[in-house]
Amino acid sequence: MLPLKPIPPPRRVMLYPREDGPAAYGAATQAAASLTERGIAVVVPAHVHAKAGTDGLELPASAVGVEIDSLPDNIDLMIALGGDGTLLRGSRWVADMGVPVVGVNLGDLGFLSAYGREQLLEVIDDALAGRLAWEPRLRMAVEVHRAGELFARGTAVNDVYIKHGQIPRLLRLATRVGGHDLALYKADGLIVTTPLGSTAYNLAAGGPIVAPGTEVFTITPICPHSLTLRPVVVAADDGVTVTWAGPTAGVSDGYLTADGAWKIGLLLGDEIRMRAAEMPLRLVPAKASVFEVLAAKMGWSGY
Amino acid sequence: MLPLKPIPPPRRVMLYPREDGPAAYGAATQAAASLTERGIAVVVPAHVHAKAGTDGLELPASAVGVEIDSLPDNIDLMIALGGDGTLLRGSRWVADMGVPVVGVNLGDLGFLSAYGREQLLEVIDDALAGRLAWEPRLRMAVEVHRAGELFARGTAVNDVYIKHGQIPRLLRLATRVGGHDLALYKADGLIVTTPLGSTAYNLAAGGPIVAPGTEVFTITPICPHSLTLRPVVVAADDGVTVTWAGPTAGVSDGYLTADGAWKIGLLLGDEIRMRAAEMPLRLVPAKASVFEVLAAKMGWSGY
Amino acid sequence: MLPLKPIPPPRRVMLYPREDGPAAYGAATQAAASLTERGIAVVVPAHVHAKAGTDGLELPASAVGVEIDSLPDNIDLMIALGGDGTLLRGSRWVADMGVPVVGVNLGDLGFLSAYGREQLLEVIDDALAGRLAWEPRLRMAVEVHRAGELFARGTAVNDVYIKHGQIPRLLRLATRVGGHDLALYKADGLIVTTPLGSTAYNLAAGGPIVAPGTEVFTITPICPHSLTLRPVVVAADDGVTVTWAGPTAGVSDGYLTADGAWKIGLLLGDEIRMRAAEMPLRLVPAKASVFEVLAAKMGWSGY
Amino acid sequence: MLPLKPIPPPRRVMLYPREDGPAAYGAATQAAASLTERGIAVVVPAHVHAKAGTDGLELPASAVGVEIDSLPDNIDLMIALGGDGTLLRGSRWVADMGVPVVGVNLGDLGFLSAYGREQLLEVIDDALAGRLAWEPRLRMAVEVHRAGELFARGTAVNDVYIKHGQIPRLLRLATRVGGHDLALYKADGLIVTTPLGSTAYNLAAGGPIVAPGTEVFTITPICPHSLTLRPVVVAADDGVTVTWAGPTAGVSDGYLTADGAWKIGLLLGDEIRMRAAEMPLRLVPAKASVFEVLAAKMGWSGY
To answer: What is the DSSP pairing of strand C77-82 with strand C12-17?
Structure first.
């Protein structure tokens, strides 16, 4: 089981409502008012702040809009208002800074959100009373090297996948773990997932479910050409390196996607290096274990 | 990557030839002679010692036969002469005592043996020169509790499986991890495997390959009744507990097997507790990584 | 879609209640009374007839008990009272004679029963009004040849599997289709299934779902040693022959099971020949298609 | 087993060399010369004819170049020079006209080509001696309906798949078989394959191997969101209809690909109707059965 670290009562809270518009504005309005009333500073993404007064979004005058990619360093807690996807996307901006994240679930049953919609004020109560606590969750640091030089870098809480583009030709992906050759995958693509991401795309592609608290990455090919290429679980410390190998004739286009949010086109020869990020995600865990959520989603407990 | 610990030159070596008879006696004869010549004490299992002078087995007069289940505590190294199975079975007797094990492979390509047949004298040279080193490999401690009391205990280097007997009725196996319910498996059976055992029965049943150096157990159902019951990877520290659940009518017989070697019949209600053994297996690793062996066995590297 | 053949109003009906005792006796009592009242002769298995007057089973004086393995040839319809398993087992005794079978489901949702418990009198109404119709469903004729001679024969509506016994050693099963070698399976066992049986053990072992109306057998290995051994769908007309191949040393025990009901021990060298039975099962189909049942059982239709 | 129909000695033969240029021109030069010498008319695709005199391609003066999409109706035989892909693509143009196709394999082991490179003159000998014979192989007729009208139509010898485009959002694919709802697939896409195509993309996506001579389509989802959505085998006569279902917000782009050769973009709401083509592919089968090829490719026969 993972160690729980208490979160001191926050003085500045970032609200991160679901990105696709007004659906989460009611909850954001309510949370902003409650926090402000209780003397806690409220921060929201600038694009949300710009919407104040429209679409049902009301923000106190004291609420501050901040550019999501250059956040101030004094945020004590992020409250994500939406589903697992919202929490994942919101956490991308604060995880490196060690800001703990808690989710209020506005939609379907998920794995990450600790609170349901009707508990919006309860999470604020709990935060202010110092009753929240976070667990570390393995994240991935990703680098793309092109022609020997660092071309791009990012992080992933869930997964990274490398996949063909519109023309579904097989990619040849030479994969190394801890400096040793693992396999040359000939496949539609390849998923490298953290334990957190194991119940997402990895599961659809045939990978195993991996419990939080394990320090492993799982490498799962997507529609591999060879039937012997099965999912492989490796120590996160060893790192995973994938090179888009030739031949150069008849190749497809390829791209890399991290957490379904960060996407870049790849060139033949690009090398993608994945390793454990230095700072884990500081997640306020759901009260239900991943197994209880799975049992509910999948009917595992039924007699 | 796993840390390597050097093995000091041994003064007493146990030879463990393959169990099914004369096939490994030539190698045992040669190794015993070479060790004795160089002043190293030789120990063999009593049932092997009893065969000396027959079937091509010659042992020096100084070689000692010992009961395999009450070994002296002064053995410095076990040399297993056979394949992966021989090494697994031999290691069962010495792993708890912290005796390092090295394999000389007399058969097909395997994952565990560090030396090939033609290297029989080389392993002795390396041992006496202090050039051998071991890596820790996760082992499993297993307890069977019946009617609230400890009924049996054992260990597994590879895997434990719980399965129906001759009448192939579904077993209902209530499974807990770290004190939380995981799932009620309705299946032919259930495999719990260490990383080392992941390429054995687990792979045939649809489980992932798990690299050495990860501290995880993998739980893989055998022919599960529900399609949502997929392999699950959990932290070894959390432990896995399986209870053979009812109903009591129409049940099959059931049994537990560890490493294909230790087998006991189960009763309805039995609880099987698996956790990381305190003492890991001290294995002299093969020079080829598990991935290189897989690549060779499965054709992963081919263009 | 399969052709539907109307069933003329029956003059003699066999009731086949679930085998495990009184659970289905209420329904049998009710059906026997209704049929007798309406002038239809009632037949039941002798072991059921012997229970009349006990356990809530009441039979009219005119009801006849018959030995299940030497049925008279004047039965016009079998009504199975139970679940899919009851219908399967009941049909074993009448399918070769071309007697149509209709199921009244007393338990969980199933694939085979056309009527629910509350429709017990409705099925009788429909039968007497000539409103029932049957579809042909592929059955399997099975022969076991030992030392060159026919040793046993039987049929299967669902599936045949060949599997190790209590000692779970790999079986080597040399398999031929239409006179051509298919594969040498090294596995816990092998399932050969009709379309009807494809949603049973075959599905748990990783096989595909096969729609009724296809004239195919599906061959699915159980925990195959080689990852390339995938399920294979073949024309039923070609037949499937499986030989339990050596080596002779270290073999397990093996057995064959048909429809979970007929079980015989196998010897090394036994050859099992499976082909389409001449007489298909004449089944009154469920109003819901197999897909609708699957959708309900598995949540396929959900948005 | 499939019936074999003899092919009378041809008077006009179409040569179809691999499309990607000079690789197959040597074989085409040799075949064209041999046929012309023996008084058989030679036809080649116009784009090949235009290359005569370059890249090592020499054609007799009498050889005729024809537009591939408006072939004359007097072709008696197509000889495909290349691998399985070449034969598939070549057959697209002649299969509807009932022209038999025979492959000369210039590359890796394949399933479709009856002759190897060194047998180029042998196939001509066999053809002229009337020793060739074809088997019928199930093909698929495909229609795309848009807004209630026929938008496009084509055929497939191997498979049709419907898949997301560059943005890998889940597609919702409402699927019907024989007029009944099968399932609403939420997946990266869906493959519908003939028996011939079952060893291609279908196998990589987890589908079964389907023997030639079965009149079935196999429906295999690509990375389905739900673990219960397994491959389904249905009677080809029943047809398969797939509708790209909403919701309309946040949808990906989608497209349809037939035999990897014919590709069209899809719009939400498009309905794809697949049924058995009236004219099967008339294929001169490989001497080795599909099982022997599989055994060789996959090592199925090894002890």
So the answer is: parallel
